[in-house]
Amino acid sequence: MQKVKTLGELKKLGYQSKSIKDELRTNLITKIKKKENVFKGIVGYEDTVIPEIERAILSRHHINLLGLRGQAKTRIARQMTELLDEYIPIVEGSELNDDPLNPISLFGKNKIAELNDKTPIAWLHRSERYIEKLATPDVSISDLIGDVDPIKAANLKLSYSDERVIHYGIIPRSNRCIFVINELPDLQARIQVSLFNILQEGDIQIRGFKLRLLLDIQFIFTANPEDYTNRGSIVTPLKDRIGSQILTHYPKSIELSKKITKQEAKLTDVQKSQIEVGYLIQNLIERIAFEARESEFVDSKSGVSARLTISAYENLVSTAERRMLLNNEESTAARISDLTGVIPSVNGKIELVYEGEQEGAAIVAQYLVGKAIKNEFLDYFPDPTSLKKKKDAGPYQSIVNWFAEGNIVDMMLLENNKIYKKGLESIPGLQELVDLFLPKISKSEKLIMMEFILFALAEHSLIGKKVLERGLQFKDVSSSIFSEKDFFKDQNN
Q1: What is the pLDDT of residues 235-293, one digit of tens each?
Q2: Does 314 lie in the same domain as 209?
Q3: How many domains, the chain?
């Protein structure tokens, strides 16, 4: 079809024009019948968001994706181009992607009136039919809709009443395309009002010109919940004109969150082959985000992006890699102590409430890591909290007694694999505890689990944990003085 170069050839071919909404609908129906995955790489929305989007497309609606940051709203919008026809014909040279069979611009109409069947045709690929605009307070009506161009009027010696002096904005230039406005509430109310006619009647007005450009556009808006931002809101008449408002959400389980992180994390082949990240560490990375979304220190209205766990996972691997390189080792496994390396990723991904600001971002981040360890521990071992009320610490008693006798274990953040293994195996009862509750795990996972027990018992206050200049010291709880602020001060030096 792309060999067709003129309007006459296009007519002979029997080409039939259709609106962009009909394109999306027709191609979606084909994919649904073939049971093809429409939105590849979108995890966790299979039974919630995606069916609602498909219903909106079948209904030929404009769409507003409403959700907190990091919920794949823009990614979904970008993937909708896969539902467009691969190529569509346009009048060659047209600013507004004029349909040769139904032109809307003065240029397109004049061209066809002049050349008729000899009018040259160009072909537009679906990848070129996606336009995205970030809404900011400085966006003007001229940017979106258009304005009179005095320079064009002067150069062409035209009157301001001549339609040819108009400089079209980004929306008319998006004719027959998917047009996305991100963060819609950030648009000033008077700018949002300018969208009313476009959404309802499909036409525009520019500086009083009596234009009726029947634009063919699929609008997709993205926004955070209105109670999240003080920067603005969606005006009610505009919201009323958007056919479907679809609520997005964060992953509802650790497993779904892990799948997203693994899919999105950018690791080198060397990192993938030389750094082992066990299931426990993977779970802890995801649980940090889950704890943050429930934390009293974090602004829940702001949300905790899925990018937190992706960045944290990348930093965790790099922390293990750096230790491996310094020790001149060929491979290593990520450790519980390597979670100190994810703090910078957490710091930049959470918005703190007043109480959190008082504590400081680094302290809150460490608190979230500790809480993740504390709660993840309950999925593998008995709850130490219930045992702590008794004189007997149950399966942890031998470990607690060993530290109570004055024994101390220093765990340096950069120690090599041999010293790390030797230090953990020197603690009586630690390996036996893992064998008792998790007899089938691998040798490398067993070491990580032994370290995990130490950290968890410290979080449950059965043993003590003290900060050293370049690591941590585990000791009897009664003799431990732990200052997280000093720890992070050392880490930043």
Answers
A1: 889 989 999 999 999 999 999 999 999 999 999 999 999 999 999 999 999 999 999 99
A2: no
A3: 3
CA distances to 44, 338, 453, 473 from 457, rounded to whole Å, are 33, 18, 6, 13
| pLDDT tier for residue 487 given thresholds of 50, 70 and 90 | very low
Q: Over the stretch 72-119, which tens digit does the pLDDT of each residue have?
A: 999 999 999 999 999 999 999 999 999 999 999 889 999 999 999 999
Asked whether residue 189 is domain-assigned, the answer is: yes
H or E element, residue 140: none
If asked whether residues 319 and 443 sit together in one domain, one would say no
**50 plus 185 within the same structural domain:** yes
How many Å apart are CA 478 and CA 465, to the nearest integer?
10
Q: Could you report the per-residue pLDDT of 117-166, keeping only the tens digit for each? A: 999 999 999 999 999 999 888 888 888 988 777 777 677 776 656 677 78
The answer to whether residues 293 and 428 belong to one domain is no
Averaged pLDDT, 324-346: 95
Other Cβ atoms within 10 Å of 151 Cβ, number? 9
Q: How far is CA 398 from CA 151, 296, 328, 394, in A?
A: 86, 35, 36, 9
392 inside domain: yes
- Please provide the DSSP assignment of 342-369 as one string: GHHHHHTT--B-HHHHHH-HHHHHHHHH
333: left (phi over 0), alpha (psi -120 to 50) or beta: beta
Pairing of strands 332-333, 275-276: parallel
pLDDT higher for 404 or 467? 404
Q: Could you list the residue range(s) of the whole structural domain that residue 279 is in?
A: 251-379
Assigned domain for 60 exists:
yes
Question: Would you say residue 489 has pLDDT above 70?
Answer: no
> Cα(109)–Cα(88) distance, rounded to whole angstroms?
18
C-alpha to C-alpha distance for 485 and 364, rounded to whole angstroms = 10
Residue 1 within any structural domain of the chain: no
Based on the fold, state whether residues 372 and 410 are members of the same structural domain. no
**Among 184, 345, 149, 326, which Cα is nearest to 261's?**
345
Share the mean pLDDT of the chain. 89
Pair (208, 264) in one structural domain: no
Same domain, 27 and 47: yes
Whether residue 164 sits in one domain with residue 17: yes
With a CB cutoff of 8 Å and minimum separation 6, the contacts of 199 are 62, 219, 238, 241, 242
